[in-house]
Design goal:
The complex is a heterodimer.
Chain A: H1 3-29, H2 35-54, H3 58-75, H4 83-101, H5 104-109, H6 111-124, H7 130-135, H8 140-148, H9 152-160, E1 162-168, H10 180-190, E2 191-199, E3 217-224, H11 228-234, E4 243-247, H12 253-262, H13 267-277, H14 282-298, H15 305-316, H16 320-339, H17 347-374, H18 377-400, E5 402-404, H19 406-423, E6 426-432, E7 437-439, H20 440-461, H21 465-470, E8 476-486, E9 489-496, H22 503-512, H23 524-529, H24 552-561, E10 565-571, E11 575-583, E12 588-596, E13 599-604, E14 608-613, E15 619-620, E16 625-628, E17 631-637, H25 638-641, H26 652-657, E18 664-670, E19 673-679, E20 681-689, E21 703-708, E22 714-718, H27 720-741
Parallel strand pairs in A: 6-8, 13-22, 17-19
Antiparallel strand pairs in A: 1-3, 1-4, 2-3, 5-7, 8-9, 9-11, 10-11, 12-13, 12-20, 14-18, 15-16, 16-17, 18-19, 21-22
Helix pairs in contact in A: 1-2, 1-4, 1-19, 2-3, 3-4, 4-6, 12-13, 12-15, 17-18, 19-20, 20-24
Chain B: E1 3-8, E2 13-22, H1 24-35, E3 43-54, H2 56-71, E4 75-79, H3 83-91, H4 95-98, H5 101-106, H6 109-114
Parallel strand pairs in B: 2-3, 3-4
Antiparallel strand pairs in B: 1-2
Classes of the chains: A alpha+beta, B alpha/beta.
């Protein structure tokens, strides 16, 4: 891992901790404040500070240190997190986020950022400890001078406070851009290094010497009030392949002896080093080593180190508290081990894997096609097995890209809180279905549309406190974000209990803007959808909240770009609900292969209800509509919609073989709408690798992408929501035409 | 990149003058080009006052150089450490290697290699 990669990890982790801080602050803001939350937020601030210190990002360290101090005081119940302090802490958290986004040089060049930091620290000052105010500039040198003047008795007490850190870092540490210098420097910020022994025993001979490998080993006595976790965090970036032992001030002699046994260097020499560090006295070391050898000589069987440990524990009477602490630590380590099952990988690598699996799927289909031509049953069976495994690999790989929507939803808590404050409204945000998983790419692209809908709901949907009181509603407006699965799609719903869309006003505005004719008769749904029309928003309606250049038309466009659709259900005086429907994934889908006039199409399988023979059903004359078990289903003829003509390479015989009247109908559903798609041939299920169409085809309605078939032909992936919309519109027009032409017919 | 100047003197001594940045970026090149096959005389003087920057790879390189000098039964003497090395040496409490060379000489190179 290079230094850049390690820094990248720092940025990612800092972002995670900042999100965690925000979530905790939101909970505290809602009145939930307990030790666990305080510890959590303190640890986040501390980790950001600690990691930044390792990279020498002093601007982050200096600011976060004060925030950490305030949080520490809150943890110790010295101060309470009152509303005004929580507000400042929200701003401090935002400031840390800004600090993380700039390096030290950029920070030094930005006086505005520095001033914001100063103002925030000033605002925090009533809650910082007096030590912090007077001693923030105190450095380790001052400490050293003071320490020199301490009496020997005090020195003894100090030694009681000494941690012993044994570092055998990975040999690749330097090559990976991690110099022990940074860790040791950072340790000085946690306390005072009483002694450090740099061991050179591991140096090889001249021939084997690698000038970029780390040969130094370190034994460190650190006098510090820091916790084990804080000290451990110092080495978080080099833990892999390193041997790091941290013994607390309460460690017993046997702990040190275990350490000596564990380390590669000569026992006596290590013992002397520990004595030099002040971690062991010469007397206790000699006694313990003597006991160990005595025990080994007298024993009939060779005794394990564990026996030595027991002996020494008896000698030194380990207290119950120490055992309990050790057990707790063991539990923590176990939970850490289970956390360690997660790994962080570059999303580009994952995308690359998905692309490769896409190619694998295409090739598998080609092999399947070729194998069928051979009529060799053994080969066909083997290819079937291969197909089965390809499907499993595909599903497993696609699962890797799925992330819970909860992370995106959580971010809205802060947005809702701040927007509500800005608007002087009271809003309660409810989140449901946070565990619902969605393709990572979609989660990333959903942020902006969701933000706009949420802001709109708060700005235009939810009424002011006075208005809500006047209509006898709870003064606290309700906003709900929910996610759930529905018919192979993910639905994300944003609902509020505001005043709903005023359809009359929408109609007036649409007429005023020339979007509709004054004579137009529009259904409620059509009126609602007018808000997605480009240019519908008026300048007067744009506020600093909803006028950020993303109109509802852009929201719709963004959702459609994700092969999704957006619906509105609004009732005046009761509230509105925006439903975004999205496919589960964008990369590889289960499709249904159909053909019309030698052009191949793929229908996403999740949308298909059934396939029927069109000839067997009553076709309502002139309306492209069939009666299916009593339901009127509009359908689209692919040949007509896309003006398809038979391809030139289709032979006359083939053309004759095709019965032009024979039509198959695939019934599809999206949301509550059902429609049919009339095609010439049904080929069956197929795994479809979705390839985006070039920008030139953007205007083509009804096509969502393309795919390569096993035989090398191109197939177009149908955009079912758009086609259903088209079928319904056509059906309405046909119906109107039919009425106009012959009002008495049917 | 550090600059290395090695002078074999008539008074049966060798002078090694290191200047510039002695860091991981040049450690390999410096070692292979200058130190790996260096032949030193009875006394080796190492001048480090012009070292402007040093990191752990640089300090390890100096320790290795001292080991090579010791292995050739030569005595070494460091002249003026320079600020960068002094800071490093103070932080890591390495003064016995870079100042009190008599003590370092007492650690026999054979013993160190045996303990690996």
């Amino acid at each position: 891992m290079s230094l850049d990669a390690v820094l990248q990890t720092f940025y990612v982790e800092a972002q995670e901790h900042l999100e965690l801080m925000e979530n905790v602050l939101l909970k505290i803001d809602e009145g939930e404040c307990n030790d666990e939350l305080l510890n959590e937020i303190f640890r986040s601030a501390h980790t950001i500070k600690g990691s930044a210190g390792i990279f020498g990002l002093d601007h982050i360290v200096n600011f976060t240190h004060v925030v950490e101090n305030v949080l520490d005081r809150a943890r110790d119940n010295e101060i309470t997190l009152e509303k005004s302090l929580v507000d400042i802490l929200f701003n401090c958290r935002d400031h840390i986020q800004k600090l993380v986004s700039v390096n030290l040089e950029e920070f030094n060049a930005q006086s505005e950022l520095q001033n914001i930091g100063k103002d925030l620290l000033e605002a925090l000052s009533p809650w910082t400890s007096s030590d912090e105010e007077s001693g923030s500039t105190q450095n380790s040198q001052n400490l050293e001078t003071e320490n020199k003047e301490t009496s020997s008795a005090e020195l003894e007490n100090e030694n009681d406070n000494c941690w012993h850190i044994s570092l055998r870092l990975s040999a690749d540490c330097l090559k990976n851009g991690m110099d022990p210098l940074s860790f040791i420097k950072f340790l000085t910020s946690l306390g005072e290094i009483k002694h450090i022994e740099t061991l050179i025993d591991n140096f090889p001979n001249t021939k084997n010497y690698d000038a970029e490998a780390l040969y130094f080993a370190y034994e460190i006595a650190l006098q510090s009030e820091a916790s084990l976790e804080e000290i451990e965090n110092t080495f978080m970036f080099v833990q892999d392949d390193s041997n790091i032992t941290i013994l607390p001030p309460s460690a017993k002699v046997d702990d040190y002896l275990h350490l000596i046994e564990k380390l590669p260097e000569e026992n006596q020499r290590l013992g002397d080093i520990l004595v030099n560090c002040g971690s062991l006295t010469k007397h206790s070391l000699e006694q313990a080593l003597a006991s160990q050898s005595h025990e080994n000589i007298n024993a009939e069987e060779p005794k394990s180190n564990h026996k030595l440990g027991e002996l020494l524990t008896e000698q030194h009477k380990v207290s119950k508290e120490v055992i309990n602490a050790a057990l707790t630590k063991q539990q923590q380590n176990k939970s850490k081990a289970s956390e360690g099952k997660q790994i962080r990988i570059d999303s580009n690598r994952l995308d690359h894997l998905i692309n490769l699996i896409g190619e694998l799927v295409i090739n598998q289909q080609r092999i399947e096609l070729l194998s069928k031509k051979t009529n060799n049953p053994v080969l066909i069976e083997a290819v079937d097995d291969f197909d089965n495994f390809t499907n499993q690999i595909r599903d497993a790989a696609l699962n890797l890209r799925m992330v819970p929507i909860g992370g995106t939803f959580q971010r809205f808590k802060r947005l809702v809180r701040d927007t509500a404050q800005e608007l002087g409204k009271e809003v309660e945000l409810t989140i449901e279905g946070a565990d619902t998983e969605l393709d990572r790419l979609m989660v990333e692209k959903l942020g902006d549309p969701l933000t706009h809908i949420v802001r709109n709901a708060m700005d235009h949907g939810l009424e002011s406190i006075e208005d809500r009181t006047a209509v006898d509603k709870d003064i606290k407006g309700q906003l709900k974000l929910s996610a759930y699965h529905e018919a192979g799609h993910i639905v994300i719903a944003i609902s509020d209990d505001g005043n709903g869309i005023n359809k009359e006003r929408v109609r007036e505005k649409a007429i005023e803007k020339g979007i509709i004719n004054p004579e137009s008769q529009l259904s409620d749904n059509e009126l609602n959808h007018l808000i997605f029309h480009p240019g519908f928003s008026t300048a007067a309606a744009v506020t600093n909240l909803s006028g950020r250049g993303v109109g509802m038309d852009v929201v719709k466009r963004n959702v459609e770009a994700l092969q999704g659709s957006i619906d509105i259900d609004s009732k005046e005086g009761i509230g509105s609900e925006f439903k975004i429907r999205l496919p589960l994934t964008l990369a590889i889908i289960d499709g249904f292969h159909v053909e019309a006039k030698s052009t191949h199409f793929i229908i996403p399988q999740a949308t298909i209800i059934e396939c029927i023979d069109l000839a067997n059903h009553e076709d309502i004359k002139g309306r492209h509509c069939i009666n299916l078990r009593g339901d009127m289903i509009p359908y689209l003829n692919m040949t007509e919609i896309f003006n398809l003509t038979p391809s030139l390479d289709v032979s006359v015989a083939d053309a004759l073989a095709q019965t032009p009247t024979k039509k198959e109908l695939v019934i599809v559903q999206f949301g509550n709408d059902v429609a049919g798609i009339a095609v010439d041939k049904l080929h069956g299920e197929i795994q479809t690798v979705v390839k985006p169409l070039g920008p030139i085809f953007k205007a083509l309605k009804g096509i969502g992408g393309s795919s390569l078939l096993g035989n090398g032909d191109i197939a177009f992936i149908l955009d079912i929501p758009q086609l259903i919309e088209l079928a319904i519109t056509n059906e309405a027009n046909n119906k109107a035409d039919a009425i106009n032409i012959s009002p008495n017919e049917k | 990149m550090a600059e290395i100047k090695i002078t074999q003197k008539r008074n049966n001594s060798t002078e090694i003058c290191i200047s510039g940045e002695l860091t991981i970026y040049c450690a390999m090149a410096v070692y292979q080009e200058y130190f790996q096959d260096i032949k030193v005389k009875e006394l080796t003087t190492i001048k480090l006052n012009k070292v402007t920057e040093i990191d752990t790879a640089g300090v390890q390189l100096l320790i290795m150089l001292i080991k090579i000098i010791n292995a050739q039964q030569s005595k070494y003497q460091i002249e003026s450490l320079g600020e960068a090395l002094t800071d490093y040496s103070n932080l890591f409490q390495l003064n016995r290697y870079f100042v009190d060379f008599e003590e370092f000489n007492s650690i026999s190179p054979q013993k160190s290699e045996q303990s690996q």
